[in-house]
Amino acid sequence: MIGSLGLIIPLSIAAVVLTFNSFRLTAVTFVVAILSAGLSLLALAVFQYPFGINAIIGVIGSIGVSINAAIIILTGMQQNTAAANGDRNAMVDVVMSSSRHIVSTTLTTFGGFLPLIVEGGGFWPPFAMSIAGGVLLSTVISFYFAPPMFALVYARRKVASGEDGMSRGTDKNDAEADTWSNDNYQQALAAE
Prior knowledge:
Blueprint: H1 2-20, H2 23-46, H3 53-79, H4 81-84, H5 88-119, H6 125-153, H7 172-178, H8 185-191
Helix pairs in contact: 1-2, 2-3, 2-6, 3-5, 3-6, 5-6
């Protein structure tokens, strides 16, 4: 099982990078995945289930579902021009429009594993709890962590002219650079 991780992890990273065409959004997605793994372990600890191979497999399954939720939110924001430019209302609209899909996936996953948690005997409850708990808690992380991180690492925030009371310059490059919130305009263009 460990030997195949050398192939699975690079292929997973490559698939997410190709989805976003951005290393920064891929990093956000995998931070959500790591947080999901931690939340799966938290669910196991809170309900005092043993940590074994079943729980490990459940954590891996929970990571997959949380990556899917982050991809849905971040792709929606990337495709929405206003959200990609840093408009917070547009970001809220994107999250709200994608919430139906994510919440339905979360509830059906949790509901599907609930019988195994309640009456699964000694073998299935750690597996079911790590997936159900991780998916349920990582949905909250996807909704509250992914959008601010998107705004931090991706969104181009337009600065209103004269907002800071300073005049920047008069040539075309200075005027174009004024619309960016960071000083690394050329590097930001090269990164995209």
